[in-house]
Amino acid sequence: MTPSTGRQETQEERADRQWSELLQELRVAQTGVQILFGFLLAVVFQSRFEDLGDIDRNIYVVTVMLGSATAAALIGPVSYHRLLTGRRMKPETVLWASRMTMLGLVLLFCTMCSALLLILRVVLHNQLALWLVGAMALWFLACWFVFPVWALARGRSGRRAEEHEGGDGEAGDGDAPPGRGSDAS
Question: Which backbone phi and psi does 53 adopt, to 5 degrees?
Answer without folding.
Answer: -80, 175
